[in-house]
Please model this.
Amino acid sequence: MLPLPLIPLVALVFAVSAFAQTTPEGWAERLAPFKWNHGGERQPPPGLEHGTYFSEANEAEVGYYINLPLGYEDAANTGQRYPVVYFLHGGRPGAEYKSFGGYLNFNAMRAGKAMPPHIFVGVNGGRLSHYDYGDGALGVQAFLELVEHVDATYRTIVDRNGRALIGGSQGGRGVGRYLFRYADRFATGVSIAGGHQRELIISENDGDEQSGIVIPDGTNNVFDNARAYAERGNEVPPVNLMIVIGDEDGNYVGNLQWSIFLRELGINHELMVVPGTGHGIDFDIENSRNRVWRWLADGLGE
Model:
């Protein structure tokens, strides 16, 4: 159980109750039916192609979407390797088509000079979106297998500095968990609008999210993972984390709490508060889209 950090911001005193995220009991049972593979069900945006791989952990064929950089197939580039940006979708349950919005939101930046040529991958987060949640619903294991599949199938930079994570809402939570638990595999992450107050509840209640869901591994949350990472000191490589949150988002306070907790641990990171926007962040405000993509570009360039 982690102590809640003291927050030296008067606004938080009034905001906690207003921004508390609540979910009805039995919500888990009302999730939409889950599938590991949604190939052929929805028309993807131009540039995205559907692929599959076999997850041994889940004994299932798992779908993903991928975009290869311009010139990838050119004969002159056959010796070039590319970094990979993994997009972790929001919402529950997981579905690879939920990456369409993230792809469209940032595609103009990807095509410009703000980023080095790279591969974009939209994942299927599993039954509980980026968690291991019982037999046949091992989202974490499926994702790690996806990374192995992508490295084996495409010309990637097979190194932590060649992999970046970006995700929103549930995916934003997933970015925080993966970045600190698997710092040997991922160097850079952008966590957008994650409900990190839920992560704190999981930490303090042995995995009970208090939404009708109990996470089997209650230590797998952004608070405990960050603490374990910090305790290892120089044994682990540095990570490049950006936290993005709108100041009208119901998850605003949870993101401030997490940011303060990280600073108390001595973990450097960037906190970007986008003014006047809620859970669906308007990335046109204060050049936020470009700032996010520059952060990823800088991380992949290290």
Notes: The longest helix spans residues 139-153.
